[in-house]
Amino acid sequence: GLTVRFATGAGEQSASAAVVLMATGRRPLTAEIGLDRLGIEPQRGAIAVDEQMHTRVPGVYAIGDCADLPASKAGVVAHQAAEVVAHNLAVRLRGHGEPTTLRLHTI
């Protein structure tokens, strides 16, 4: 597993995951990485996500160029999407707090 460490108002926190998927570049490079084994079927290489960066598979998130976001915003919001995922994982692991969402309209 992997552990992500992040700072909050309450100090340093961490969240662990079995797998972290990261894609970089200007187009999704998701072929042949086993998404089909998770039940994820990308469209044109991109993974469908909601405003909290969840995929259709519980506990699986996608950010950056592999997330199905408007092309003009995907690279710009990758760091913000990572913050959303880290925060929401912390809320889930701690069992309290409010999840946050990615706000594309403010970018």
Tally of strands: 2
Shape: globular
pLDDT averaged residue by residue: 81
Structural class: alpha+beta
Intertermini distance: 33 Å
- What is the share of helical residues? 25-40%
The proportion of strand residues reads 5-15%
Number of helices: 2
| Oligomeric nature of the chains | single chain
Q: Show unreliable segments.
A: none
Q: Sketch the major β-sheet.
A: 2 strands, antiparallel
Q: What is the N-to-C succession of helices and strands?
A: EEHH
Radius of gyration: 14 Å
Task: Give the spatial strand order of the biggest sheet.
Answer: 1-2
What order do the helices and strands come in, and which of them pair?
Elements (H helix, E strand, L loop, with lengths): L1 E7 L2 E7 L17 H4 L32 H24 L13
Antiparallel strand pairs: 1-2
Gist?
By secondary structure, this protein is of the alpha+beta class. The chain has helices at residues 35-38, 71-94; strands spanning 2-8, 11-17.
Written description of the protein model:
The protein has helices spanning 35-38, 71-94, and strands at residues 2-8, 11-17. The protein has 107 residues and is of the alpha+beta class. The termini are far apart.
